[in-house]
Amino acid sequence: MNDILTQSKIMNPKQFSHIIWDWNGTLLDDVHCCFECINRMLARRGLKTLENLEEYHGVFTFPVIGYYKKLGFDFEKEPFEELSVEYMDSYVHKAQAECGLHRNTEIVLARIAESGIRQVVLSASKSDILKEQTHRFPACSVFEEILGNDNIYANGKIEIALDYICRAKVQKALLVGDTLHDHEVARAIGADCVLIANGHHSRSVLRQCGAAVLDDIALLPDYIGI
Fold it and tell me: How far apart are CA 144 and CA 162, in angstroms?
């Protein structure tokens, strides 16, 4: 059952000056792509591959170096930095060919834009990769800023978020993501948080943090009263 059916709306949407969107898994439907890329790397090294998305959801974490450790990569044989380059080379090409936005994303972004709430994207992805991906989709023109990292190692995004909150003088933000790390970021910047359970963490994983969890991005506008 969706939390939307069991919880009241968060608050009057007029109290939100900004919605901060996570990108990978929240807006970009790239979970299967990531699952296949990491399994390819595991198979090349004779390591145990992930059997299904449920197993992937259970092991995926931030910072990504911890995820690689859980999967059994040996950093003494291959530094994490080299593994990251191999993964990104595979992911970028595969995502460009295969990955689109989650269903209903365009409608939701447009509806929020019409409400007057400002929207930005925040991601642990490297900025140039993130900008190249978002620019593929006309719906992303609603974003005032594309906030990414300066490297490919996906260490997290709290510092990026804090910098933006201070620089843009954000009054009240809602962060929408798909992982437990997104909830950590929201807490760090004093934002409300809604998590969508069709990305890199499952509903059962997301419910561990106590944030509101929805099954589809299409439910968000009604949930926040837009």
Answer: 17
Does residue 152 carry a pLDDT above 80? no
SS3 call for 177: strand
* Other residues' Cβ atoms within 10 Å of the Cβ of residue 218: 16
- What separation, in Å, do the N-terminal and C-terminal C-alpha atoms of the chain show? 21
pLDDT at 15: 79
What would the pLDDT profile of 133-142 be if each residue is shown by its tens digit? 999 999 999 9
- Whole-model pTM over 0.85: yes
What phi, psi does 189 have (nearest 5°)?
Answer: -105, 5
Residues listed for the chain:
226
Q: Looking at residues 68-89, what average pLDDT do you find?
A: 96
- The β-bridge relationship of strands 192-196 and 212-214 is parallel
Q: What are the b/e assignments for 118-148, b being 16+ CB within 10 Å?
A: bbbbbbbbbeebbeebbeeeebbebbeebbb
Distances (CA, A) of 120 to 19, 111, 148, 168, 201: 7, 15, 11, 11, 22
Letter string b/e over residues 103-116, b meaning 16 or more CB atoms within 10 A of that residue's CB: eebbebbebbbebe
**What does the alpha-carbon distance between residue 159 and residue 189 come to, in Å, rounded to a whole number?**
9
CA 109 – CA 113 distance, rounded (Å): 6
